[in-house]
Amino acid sequence: MSRLYAIPSSRSRDFHGSVSAFRKNSFFLYLPSFLGVSSVSYAYMRFELTIRASEEVEAYEAPLSSLQGLKLDMTDTDRASDPVISAGWVRERFPEADVAIYISARHCGESGVDAGRGAFRKRVDDAKKNGIRRIMIVSGYPRGTFDSLEALHAMYDSRLADGLHVSCAYNPFYDPGRLREEQDRLRTKLGFAFVKEVSLQIGMDIGKVQKAVEFIRGIRPDIVLSGCVPAPAPDTLGALKANPLYGVFLPNSYLLNAEIAQEMTQELLRAFAKEHIEPIIYAASPEDIMQTKALFSV
Question: SS3 for the chain, per residue?
Fold first, then answer.
């Protein structure tokens, strides 16, 4: 979860940072000019990586080393892992890459709100000291008392956002009751001027995407928008079917038929281009990256 610009993935974002087992070595691919939409072009490729050990970085060298303008986002899916450390391993292997991290509020706040604020501030300070300037804040699943809203308040109170590009997440695909809560939370997030980007959860309902754009830009016309799209390729479709991600709602027709999945993906990306949403393609394997690149003529 190329993306020319900036994200955000996560896609495991406030969706709420949920990550299934199959995502251990998966990532988001941000695609450049796609589907013949000539009005949109992107200058770099962007991926989301989950790295738990330094040797895992090697697996990405072959598919990533040939790319120019590389951007990599490190997830925070494991209490025992530190995305700042993971970012350091990646920067050693890809020194030219622009590396960002996700911070799960849940992993910071397991001992309560006060302890969570302290742990969160330390994580952000560590990121800054290591030259990281883009941070995605997620609640983590299940959401704890120290969540993404508490983290944003801590960031505001301590002026931690100075010099950072801060992203948050939004899921427009919930049922009406849950969506109202999600909208209320997003209003609060967007009240912090230092939040520069909103990333949309994975979903194929173009109507809900369009309503989300109207809602978000009605609050913050200046906001950067990005959105996650699964690669319509075998490993990714199989993984999403076998291990559904929390908060992700995909039709069976999409999951069970690669041709239909490709058609739906193309329609969604055209809608993204029209709404100026930066696409983030989620791929579950290196093979799916190669198929995706061929599909979109990357």
Answer: CCCCCCCCCCCCCCCCCCCCHHHHHCEEEECCCCCCCCCCCCCCCEEEECCCCHHHHHHHHHHHHCCCCCEEEECCCCCCCCHHHHHHHHHHHCCCCEEEEEEEHHHHCCCCHHHHHHHHHHHHHHHHHCCCCEEEEECCCCCCCCCHHHHHHHHHHCCCCCCCEEEEEECCCCCHHHHHHHHHHHHHHHCCCCEEEEEECCECCHHHHHHHHHHHHHHCCCCEEEEEEECCCHHHHHHHHHCCCCCCECCHHHHHCHHHHHHHHHHHHHHHHHHCCEEEEEECCHHHHHHHHHHCCC
Give me the torsion for CA of 30, 225, 233, 54, rounded to 10°: 50
CATH at 276: 3.20.20.220
pLDDT digits (tens, 9 = 90+) for 53-88: 898 888 778 777 766 677 787 889 888 889 999 999
Number of domains making up the chain: 1
Model pTM score: 0.82
Does 27 fall in a domain? yes
Which domain, by its residues, includes 70? 21-295
pLDDT in tens, 8-35: 333 344 443 433 333 444 555 444 444 4
Q: Let me know if residue 4 belongs to a domain.
A: no
Contact 81, 90 (CB under 8 A): no
